[in-house]
Amino acid sequence: PDFIHLQLPTIRYRPTLSAIGLLPVLSKIFFKNTPFLITVHDFSISRNFLKIFFSPIFLFSDAVIVTNGADRQDIVRCFPFLNERLKKIHIGPTIDIVGISDDRKKEIYGKMDYTEGVRFLTTFGFIKKDRCVDKVIKVFNKLKEEDEKLKLIILGRVQDKKYRDYLFELVDKLNLRGK
Q: What is the mean pLDDT of residues 72-91?
């Protein structure tokens, strides 16, 4: 292979899966000249005691990819030797588009008090500062000037209550509540 890539959702990582840490070691034995890359998600919000289980993965990986600045900072804090091997690549949503029946659409729209011709700007995922939800709100505010029917929907689990409070203050400051 040209390279080997492992992707881990850190928040769900369990010590029982620590055998995964052997993969980069095995790749160095069986695929000596093949780069081993790992993408780590949500490292900064995982439990500290679980982070030690990443040691063998990080030690033998040629590059470690993160998707936000908080993860990068936390990995460098825990594993300073990785600073040069860390790469940050922002990702978009990875949820597949699925078809929704017309009856289900009507049911959903009914709950949202939907009017024909209304468009939606949506964002979803963890609600925390490094996901820049405040920028989405500010962009929505600008777009709303051009399309008064535009609606904003934010879906996600709150990871930072202070940031959530800031977002509510921003929505109120921009007079966007209910819009």
A: 88
pLDDT tops 90 at residue 91:
no
Work out the pLDDT band at 11, boundaries 50, 70, 90: low
For residue 74, give the H/E element and its range.
helix 69-78
Higher pLDDT, 168 or 20: 168
Sheet with 36-41, strands from edge to edge, namely 4-9, 36-41, 63-66, 86-88
Question: What single DSSP character describes residue 117?
Answer: T
Q: Which of 47, 46, 43, 55 is nearest to 82 (CA)?
A: 55
Count of alpha carbons within 13 Å of 163, Cβ hemisphere only? 16
Residues 12-35 as b/e (b if ≥16 CB within 10 A, e otherwise) read ebeeeebebbebbeebeeeeeeee
Element (H, E) at 153: strand 151-155
